[in-house]
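This section describes the prediction task in plain terms. A model, or a person checking by hand, is given the sequence of a single protein chain and must write out its three-dimensional structure as a string of tokens. No templates, partner chains or ligands are provided. The sample shown here is typical of the held-out split.
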Amino acid sequence: MGLVISARNRKRLLWGGLAAGCLAFGYGLGLILFSPHEPEPPASSLVERDAKPWFELQPPPPQLVEGPNEPIFPETGTPSSVLTPPPDPAAGITAYEEPLPQDPYLPASPPPPAPFPERMAWLDNAVAYADPGDRPMMAIVIDDLGIDHKRTERIIKLKAPLTLSFLTYAVDLVGQARRARGAGHELLLHVGMQPKGTMVDPGPDALLAASPPEKIRARTSELIGRLDGIVGINNHMGSLFTENRAAMTAVLSELRHRGLLFLDSRTSPQTVGAEVAHELGVPVVERNVFLDNTNRVEAVWAAIRQAERIAAKHGFAVVIGHPRDATLQVLEAWLADADKRGVAVVPLSAIVKRSLRHSALTERG
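The expected answer:
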């Protein structure tokens, strides 16, 4: 059955359709007239843009540079209690800086290092020492100095020549170091480097592994500039930093530029410090024994005996200790008796000189 529409209903539908059409037309006109829009560019701009092909109007794609083979977010963990000395309450703890994410577009390594300087500062600043003859040599390095002034002064009064390493943020850094040098000790700068985890604090001046290499080198230069008369630097903590090749290359490039040596404290067994130093031609030596991972007199004596055995076997040993009561007590007694034990206590530079002479003889065959 077909649908029948009366004349009255047809008239209603017609008027309803006309009304709906008028409303739609008015709404569209309102959108055109009153909606916000960007101003039309000037005619010269239109002509200039229309004169170029469309593909020249697009921004160029970013040029990606292959980044270092490092995780973007390095893994973290608590440093080994064996490799990293426990924090000292007197070490001036400050807020720990969280590591920044590694920039994946940084170059894999910094630019080539500058040529060697005409004079080697580590040789100019080296402390004189008595000829050890055939005796095994031991370099006693005491770092973390300059914060605890009382213990630092006790260390300075120990029998020379020791090698004393001052923290970069020590109060009266220059004055304390001058007294140490005046007492016959050799000087290092103790540079904080990023450790693994957040449970230990490397100090306010710590170098961070995720920083751009050029920033690391500039920061290293600024820190070294705080203290004259040093033979080089050694790392304070740094179990994460010293495993990073790009970061260590930046630090060691600055040392090469300044003619300084590097003592790798070896706070990580995966450190690349010595390897990169050899590649750049930077004088380097590595720590053999930590004296005071445990701050007890018997433990320090055991460590010093271990160092004696290493020196007797290999001809030399590098020992690192800290300004702690047990360390001071043992060193005061041992240094007075070292000659009788057949050990020559020498500054760190003497070990480096011996190492370089040995390398030269080895290369000659």
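For orientation: Residues 85 and 293 are 5 Å apart (CA to CA).
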